[in-house]
Amino acid sequence: MPEQRVTAEQRRIVIERASHCCEYRRCQAKFAIQSFSVEHIIPRSCGGETYIGNLALACQGCNGHKYTKAQGYDVVSGKQVGLYHPRRQRWIDHFEWNDDFTLIIGLTPTGRATVEALQLNREGVVNLRQVLYAMGKHPPREENT
Ligand SMILES: [Zn+2]
User: Fold this and answer.
1) Do 133 and 26 form a contact (C-beta atoms < 8 A)?
2) Are strands 71-73 and 55-58 parallel, antiparallel or unpaired?
3) 104 C-alpha to center of ligand 1: Å?
4) Is 4 left (phi over 0), alpha (psi -120 to 50) or beta?
5) pLDDT tens, 82-137?
6) What angle do CA 21, 128, 18 make, to 5 degrees?
């Protein structure tokens, strides 16, 4: 397959569609040190194509952990399952916040596998959520779920 770059127009659409939040761990671009990436949900190495239905906005942490993965292991069943697909699935069907909005809890095999594979509850991320929550800046307002 020829390499297809994400166009500026696709990037603009993806960022606006995601309301400037990482589509995996729901962090907000305005509180991130590194700029977010427009990533291929099904990696190009797995045959994923560059079109709007296979693109998602991801923070550098999620993007780096996801890398070329499209599947992960559910910690409950031990089975390999597909990771969360922001275009085909709804975040709220697979994840929820704990009571103080510091941890993302996987509700389904896909949700649990994604929490593990992308390490959605990394220490620094949890600490940032605590600070932002105390300031009334977290969780982000949900518009596209
Ligand atoms: Zn992220």
Assistant:
1) no
2) unpaired
3) 12
4) beta
5) 999 999 999 999 999 999 999 999 999 999 999 999 999 999 999 999 999 999 99
6) 5
What is the CA(33)–ligand 1 centre distance, in A?
12
What number of other Cβ atoms are within 10 A of residue 32's Cβ? 16
Confidence of residue 3 (pLDDT cuts 50, 70, 90): low
* Tens-place pLDDT, residues 30-53: 999 999 999 999 999 999 999 999
Cα 47 to ligand 1 centre (Å): 22
> How many whole angstroms from 57 Cα to the centroid of ligand 1?
8
Rounded to the nearest angstrom, the distance between the alpha carbon of 67 and the centre of ligand 1 is 12
Determine the distance separating the centroid of ligand 1 and the alpha carbon of 2, expressed in angstroms.
27
Residues, CB within 5 angstroms of ligand 1 (ion): 22, 24-25, 59, 62
Q: What is the pLDDT of residues 51-89, one digit of tens each?
A: 999 999 999 999 999 999 999 999 999 999 999 999 999
